[in-house]
């Protein structure tokens, strides 16, 4: 961690505080370019937007995939107040961002949140894999 990393991580934590003050879940993130300049910043808006996917990391990954050339995206760093969840980590990977620096790990966050009370989702499959494979096969070549 460099002094710049710490400064930018504190800025992401400040965005999380902004989200909390607005009645939103307390998560914030920003994205810097190859030169360290802040390109975009977001905080969680899942309550106000009535959108369970309105995490700041996901919003920044979508922005980067839309707005940045792949080589620029690969040279970016995302600074985020907490370790990205599975949904956001997948989006970050698919958007081609180069680096993520986070302040609070999932293990550190979990005891601060209420326990999950929803029953686990039942997954059935694979089913009809040959038919599904025929549609996908060759697409990624």
Automatic annotation (TrEMBL):
Molecular function GO labels: catalytic activity
Span of domain CMP/dCMP-type deaminase: 3-141
Organism domain of life: Bacteria
Coiled coil: none
Pfam families for this protein: dCMP_cyt_deam_1
Protein name: tRNA-specific adenosine deaminase
Species assigned in the record: Sphaerisporangium rufum
Lineage: Bacteria, Bacillati, Actinomycetota, Actinomycetes, Streptosporangiales
């Amino acid at each position: 961690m460099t002094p710049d990393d710490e400064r930018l991580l504190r800025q992401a934590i400040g965005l999380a505080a902004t989200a909390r003050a607005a009645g939103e879940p307390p998560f914030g993130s920003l994205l810097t370019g190859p030169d360290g300049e802040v390109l975009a910043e977001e905080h969680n808006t899942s309550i106000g937007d009535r959108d369970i996917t309105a995490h700041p990391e996901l919003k920044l990954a979508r922005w980067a995939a839309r707005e940045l050339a792949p080589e620029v995206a690969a040279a970016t760093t995302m600074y985020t107040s907490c370790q990205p969840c599975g949904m956001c980590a997948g989006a970050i990977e698919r958007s081609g961002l180069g680096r993520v620096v986070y302040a609070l790990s999932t293990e550190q966050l979990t005891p601060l949140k209420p326990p999950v009370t929803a029953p686990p989702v039942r997954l059935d499959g694979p089913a009809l894999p040959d038919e599904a494979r025929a549609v996908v096969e060759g697409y990624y070549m």
